[in-house]
Amino acid sequence: MAANNGEDQQNQLSGHKELAHKSLLQSDALYQYILETSVFPREHESLKELREMTEKHPWNLMATPPDEGQLLRMLIKLINAKNTIEIGVFTGYSLLSTALALPEDGKILALDVSREYYELGLPIIEKAGVAHKIDFREGPALPVLDELLEDESNKGTFDFVFVDADKDELSQKGD
Ligand SMILES: C[S@@+](CC[C@H](N)C(=O)[O-])C[C@H]1O[C@@H](n2cnc3c(N)ncnc32)[C@H](O)[C@@H]1O
C-alpha cells in the first residue's frame, strides 16, 4: 500500500469517527487503534479508493466498515467459497471485498434495489479486475430469492450469503 501523507491520514481519521458508530467495539479510541494498526495496512488499494469515495456520499453510514470487509474476506477464504450471494450492495465495499477474496472463477449474485448506488463504485470494481465475478440485479431481493428457492437445481449451489439489507424479512429465507 502506498504511504500516506499527513492530509491522507487526516482524511482517514475523520472517516473513522463516522464508521466507529457501526462498530461492535464501544470505544472509538480502541476502534481507531485497530483500524490504524491492523485494518488499513491490510486494506486493498481498490477498497481504500472505494471507501474514500463512499465517505463523501450523504448515506456513507450505510457502507460496510473496513474491519467487517476484512472479516468477510477471512470467512470466504476459510470456507473456500466460490458461489455467493450479496443482498444490499450500496456502493460496493463488501461486494468488492468478497470479489477480491473469491477465486478467479468465483461468482457473486449481487442484489440491490438501486443500481445507481452500485454504479458509483463500479468503475473502481472494474479497475480492480473483478467485475466479471459479479452478476448485479436491480430490484428487491425477496422475489429473486423465492425464484432461486423454487428451482431445485439451485440446492447446495451457494456457499456463502451476506445479507446487508432488510434483515428481518430476509432472515426468514435463511434455510
Ligand atoms: C446497509 S446498505 C448495504 C451496504 C453494503 N453492503 C456496503 O458494503 O456498503 C443496504 C443496501 O440495501 C439496499 N436494499 C434495501 N432494501 C433492499 C431489498 N429489499 N432488496 C435489495 N436491496 C435492498 C439499499 O438500497 C442499500 O444499498
UniProtKB/TrEMBL annotation:
InterPro entries with a match to the protein in the record: Cation-dep_OMT (IPR050362), SAM-dependent_MTases_sf (IPR029063), SAM_O-MeTrfase (IPR002935)
Keyword Repeat applies: no
GO BP of this protein: methylation
Protein name: Caffeoyl-CoA O-methyltransferase
One GO molecular-function entry: S-adenosylmethionine-dependent methyltransferase activity
Function: Methylates caffeoyl-CoA to feruloyl-CoA and 5-hydroxyferuloyl-CoA to sinapoyl-CoA. Plays a role in the synthesis of feruloylated polysaccharides. Involved in the reinforcement of the plant cell wall. Also involved in the responding to wounding or pathogen challenge by the increased formation of cell wall-bound ferulic acid polymers.
Domain of life (superkingdom): Eukaryota
